[in-house]
Design a protein that fits this description.
single chain, mainly beta, Jelly Rolls, 2 domains, 6-stranded antiparallel beta sheet, 35% strand
Length: 439
Amino acid sequence: MTNTDALRYLSGFGNEFESEAETGALPIGQFNPQKVNYGLYTEQFSSTAFTTPRSTNRRTWFYRIRPSAVQGDYRPIEQHLIRSGPVTEVAVQPNLYRWDPLPVPENPTDFVDGLITLAANGKAGVEGVAIHLYAANSSMRGRFFYNADGEFLIVPQQGCLILHTECGILHVEPGEIAVIPRGIKYRVELTDDSARGYVAENYGAPLVLPDRGPVGANGFANERDFLAPVASYEDTDGEFELACKFDGGMFACDLDHSPLDVVAWVGSSYPYKYDLSRFNTINTVSYDHPDPSIFTVLTSQTQIKGTANLDFVIFPPRWVVAENTFRPPWYHRNLMSEFMGLIEGVYDAKEHGFVPGGASLHNCMTPHGPEASVFEKASNAKLVPQRYEDTLAFMFESRFIFHPTQFALETPARQLDYFQSYAKLNNHFRGRKKTISKK
């Protein structure tokens, strides 16, 4: 499948699309006829409640060779290093955290077994976010997966992924993202010897495009650039395993056929991908550094208006032209907790130690900003128009505090001296020095 085979659609606003791999497999005028063409079964897939308002309701009708109920009993399987919110292994502290990239496994490891949780908040299946890294060197063979706890936002950093889903196939490369709705079954194939990247597991409201507000009708991510797969089914008998993440645990059951047997589908809940290079960056053309919310690609909102369960924000190649301005991000303390990753290049606020495949975590009200060398450089730079090239960083931002896992705190990949990057921020004050009396 190529990108030209994919559907274009509006993410998260209830738009319905349809696709059929066999002509006439999709019923016309109704969803559940007494008999479906080709001897198919009808199955409704709902990733929101039935009574969710029409504008945000997510459901899809599948016309498949066998219903999903044809499966064995589930059994617990090895959890490996995947965890779910709430994380209670260790107490959270308001420290600065940064990690080097994780190594590619030496033993055969597929996408699911290669998931490693760095931090999580909220409660699985209800609200909050878990942040995972993945490192894999094997395709999923005879094995499929679905997540009942939340949708997966997948951010490849190294190596292409081929996502074989119930709705069809998506090729996702570094510089692109994919979103798999809660409950969709799929398997992950690698095109290279290994693959590595990041995953945000969203327990809350499904991701949607953010409002543009005063920006107007254009800018940010555009609806026409989001791509969904076309129907592509597998009619294969054999011995297969279906793994699932359910209420924070990992389980599996046996199948005697491939579950990717959907011949046609119609609805508003389906996997999709997006090329981050198509993001229309908005920035200042006068002075000061706007809030990073101008770089929001997708958002999952809470009941508190304007407050995100999860924001996915990118820092792509762009022009910087602000006058009389300290151009890197200012020093700041936020209500929101920030997890950052780097896909390629150098991030302008962290020129040392923050490398592609690595990560950092700055929780609620934990102060952070440019390292000392960046401060000195930016404070004395000649302010001419500057093009940031060959860079792509991103942020998972949440109103809830991220709790690092025990693995995240104890792994050799953790940079224990990260806080020292601010140690050389010297006192430059030129005013009259005052002392506080000890009396």
